Amino acid sequence: MLDKRKEAITVRSNSPTSLAIDVGKLEPLRVYQIRLKGLTFTDGSPLANEVFYYTLNQLRAQ
User: Fold this and answer.
1) 12-30 residue pLDDT tens
2) Are 49 and 33 in contact (CB under 8 A)?
3) Is residue 1 part of a domain?
4) Closest by alpha carbon to 9, among 47, 42, 41, 36?
5) Are 7 and 24 within 8 A, CB to CB?
6) Is residue 18 part of a domain?
7) What is d(CA 16, CA 42) in angstroms, rounded to the nearest whole number?
8) How much of the chain exceeds pLDDT 90, in percent?
């Protein structure tokens, strides 16, 4: 069974060479597809890949 959901994300950067992606609601044992459409490098060139996948196996206890 395919269970697709849209989650809110926030992309932030503190330097020109890295960024952080915050996902609104993370759940273990899910695969997340993140599209970074429209982002460019500081020189204006596009990203080589604008779609990323992340598998969340478990959340850390806080």
Assistant:
1) 888 877 889 888 888 999 9
2) no
3) no
4) 36
5) yes
6) no
7) 7
8) 19
Mean confidence (pLDDT) of the chain: 86
- 3-class DSSP state for residue 7? coil
Domain count within the chain? 1
Q: Which two tokens stand for residue 20?
A: 């952080």
For residue 57, name the pLDDT band (cuts at 50, 70, 90): very high
Buried b (16+ CB within 10 A) or exposed e, 7-45: eeeeeeeeeeeeeeeeeeeeeeeeebeeeeeeeeeeeee
- Predicted TM-score (pTM) of the model is 0.70
Residue 10 located in a structural domain: no
Band of residue 51 on the pLDDT scale cut at 50, 70, 90: very high
Residue 21 · residue 32 · CB < 8 Å: no
Which domain does 44 fall in, by range?
28-62
